[in-house]
Amino acid sequence: SEPLNMELYFYADDENREDVMKAVNWLKSLTMNDGKSAKQRNVKIVMGKLFEDEIFRVVSVSPTMSHFSSAHGWLPLQATVDIVMELDPDKNMTIKDRRK
Question: Which of 31, 34, 42, 45 could form a disulfide with 51 if both were Cys (CB 3.0 to 4.6 A apart)?
């Protein structure tokens, strides 16, 4: 397996601050399999040409939330999310695949 670790940042745009939790929960949902023994969902990362031929499996999502407000139901103003993914290729990769 070939891991990919990313750190993502979310900041509330809405006055009610629900958008930060929505983003965090959406990412967490990618690690779930709805009670079935199937693998987690695969994702495609679109960042120019960086990952154009790769598909990843989301392994874990670890949020750190901050700037809570009682006036907003204790929802966070921001969150930093550490996400761990693994390459999930359609075929076994070779040295040539990495060196092209």
Answer: 45
